[in-house]
């Protein structure tokens, strides 16, 4: 089954280039494109794609606000930010809004394809530059220290998330069912006041649970 994608970017050449490239990739179906956040919100509500490739800085409505609205309307949708900004002032709001991935426009084409597929499999993707800047600037006001509230099994699952493993891989590694993994993920996100797996992974790294 093809991954249905909406491409959002206010630069016509960039947007058309992405659409042309992604249409050459097996398993991808471009169902729509938009030039700003307002168009993106309306288009996504109508088409209900699997993934939105979202620019960050756009007229009318930026990618962060569009992401926030879209995720509220369609919680299960995947959104990847594709931008030129890697600083925490852009990365953190995007992740808090519900983005499952944050990549920079200098990403190699093949890496972009891989990143999209990983996001659709349940993983979260951050460009190395974004990760580096984010971890260098995270502070206690942005990351709640509540590890003591986690059970030992939830802590194990958190560590596995930080290693980039999917629910299926975590289940195999910890010898539990995938359904149990999903329950642990939901519980630990609530206890740590986090919204998604990307934030959970960053939390684990910041608190030195993994290298």
From TrEMBL:
Kindly list the places in or outside the cell where this protein is found, as annotated in its UniProt entry. Answer: Cytoplasm
UniProt GO cellular component terms: cytoplasm
Tell me which domain of life the UniProt entry assigns to the organism this sequence originates from: Bacteria
What InterPro entries is this protein classified in? CheY-like_superfamily, NreC/VraR/RcsB-like_REC, Sig_transdc_resp-reg_C-effctor, Sig_transdc_resp-reg_receiver, Tscrpt_reg_LuxR_C, WalR-like
Task: Kindly list the GO molecular function terms attached to this UniProt entry.
Answer: DNA binding
What GO terms in the biological process aspect are recorded for it? phosphorelay signal transduction system; regulation of DNA-templated transcription
The protein, known as: Response regulator transcription factor
């Amino acid at each position: 089954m093809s991954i249905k994608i909406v491409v959002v970017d206010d630069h016509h050449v960039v947007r058309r280039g992405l659409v042309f490239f992604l249409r050459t990739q097996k398993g991808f179906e471009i169902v729509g494109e938009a030039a700003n956040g307002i168009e993106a919100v309306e288009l996504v509500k109508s088409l209900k794609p699997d993934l939105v490739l979202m620019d960050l800085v756009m007229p009318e409505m930026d990618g962060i606000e569009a992401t926030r609205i879209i995720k509220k309307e369609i919680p299960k949708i995947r959104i990847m930010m594709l931008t030129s900004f890697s600083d925490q002032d852009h990365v953190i709001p995007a992740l808090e809004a519900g983005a499952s991935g944050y990549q920079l426009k200098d990403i190699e084409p093949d890496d972009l394809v891989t990143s999209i597929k990983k996001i659709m499999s349940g993983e979260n993707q951050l460009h190395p530059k974004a990760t580096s800047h984010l971890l260098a600037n995270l502070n206690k006001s942005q990351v709640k220290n509540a590890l003591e509230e986690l059970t030992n099994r939830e802590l194990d699952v958190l560590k596995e998330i930080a290693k980039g493993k999917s629910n299926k891989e975590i289940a195999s590694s910890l010898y539990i069912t995938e359904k149990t993994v999903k329950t642990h993920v939901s519980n630990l996100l609530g206890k740590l006041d986090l919204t998604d797996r990307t934030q959970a992974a960053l939390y684990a790294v910041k608190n030195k649970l993994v290298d």
